[in-house]
Write a structure and sequence with these properties.
By secondary structure, the chain is of the alpha+beta class. It has a single domain, classed as 60s Ribosomal Protein L30, Chain: A. About 30% of the residues lie in helices and about 25% in strands. The chain contains three helices and seven strands; from the N terminus they run H-E-E-E-E-H-E-H-E-E. Strands 1-2-7-5-6 form a five-stranded mixed beta sheet, with helices on one face. Strands 3-4 form a two-stranded antiparallel ribbon. Strand 1 and strand 2 form a beta hairpin. Helix 2 packs parallel to helix 3. The longest helix has 23 residues. The radius of gyration is 15 Å and the shape is globular.
Amino acid sequence: MVGRNPTPAIGAEQRLKELGITLPPPPTPFGNYVEGVRIGRLLYLSGMLPVIDGKPQVIGRLGAELATDEGRRAAEIATLSALSAIRAALGSLDKVTAVAKLGVYIATVGDFRDHPKVADGASDLLAKIFGPELLSGRIVLGVASISLGLPVEIELLVEVTD
C-alpha cells in the first residue's frame, strides 16, 4: 500500500501549467444523472468518457476498429474530462488529497489482452498531474460495449479537502 502525502511539493494546477495541458470544458450528462457527488471528503465521479464539448473523440472497440495506442489516448481524454469535472466541482484540482480509486472499462473484442496498457493512459496522466505519491489502486475490465460506441469509460473516486 502506498502512503499518502496530503501536501505535495507542487500542486496539481501548477503541474498542468508546466505540462502545457489545458483541460476541456466540464462534461455534461448524456442522461438523467450528475457528473459528480461529494459525500464528506470523497468526490465520486460518474463514468467519464472520451468526449469533448459533447462530441466523441474516439469511437470503436479495442481489438476490432482500434489499436491499443488509440485506446490509451481515449483513456487520457476521458481522464481530462474527469479532471475538468473535479475542477468544476471543487474550484481547483489542488483540493484533491488522494486518488482513492480508478476504474477503467474498455470496450473490446473477446480476445483483446492489452487492458493494462490502455488503462495506463489514465493512470499515467493522473500520476503526472497529482504526483506518483497520489496514484491509486485500480480495476480494469473489458466489456462488450460502452455508451455511444465509445471505447473507454473511467470511474474516479478522489479524496478532497476544503
